[in-house]
Design a protein that fits this description.
It comes from Penicillium cosmopolitanum. The chain is mostly helical. Helices cover 50% and strands 0% of the residues.
């Protein structure tokens, strides 16, 4: 239930629309990008558990195709280097504690393709009923 509420709040905040990030400071932008990916993972999990389509989801297939994953990837830098009006990159490339394992367009692309196929198959099954 909490994941559904989180997905609806993310939809209301338009976390999936990079155009709504204009005018935000660096901290808010980074937090919104991280929030998008957290909710996207909940969405993927919920969609795989929701094969009948009886629950609300974060993104429908039409919106999912418009999302530009490359633009929503957070900076690969620790949060203490992100300030309100600037991002300070450390002088040497230190190992980051940033969990960037899944912030990739390839991951997003594979997951979105699978989810779109699942949705299309569900629509075909409903049409046959």
């Amino acid at each position: 239930m909490l994941s559904v509420e989180a997905m609806q709040i993310a939809r209301l905040l338009n976390l999936h629309r990079i155009s709504d990030y204009e005018g935000l400071n660096c901290i808010e932008t980074q937090l919104r990008k991280k929030g998008f990916w957290l909710v996207f993972y909940c969405y993927v999990h919920a969609s795989l558990q929701n094969l009948q389509g009886e629950r609300l989801t974060y993104l429908d297939p039409a919106v999912l195709q418009l999302v530009k994953a490359e633009d929503l990837i957070p900076l690969e830098i620790d949060d203490e280097f992100i300030f309100e009006h600037e991002v300070v990159f450390p002088p040497s490339r230190l190992p980051s504690s940033h969990p960037d394992l899944f912030y990739t367009p390839a991951y997003f692309g594979r997951r979105s393709e699978v989810l779109i196929r699942i949705q299309q198959n569900m629509n075909l099954v409903r049409a046959c009923e």
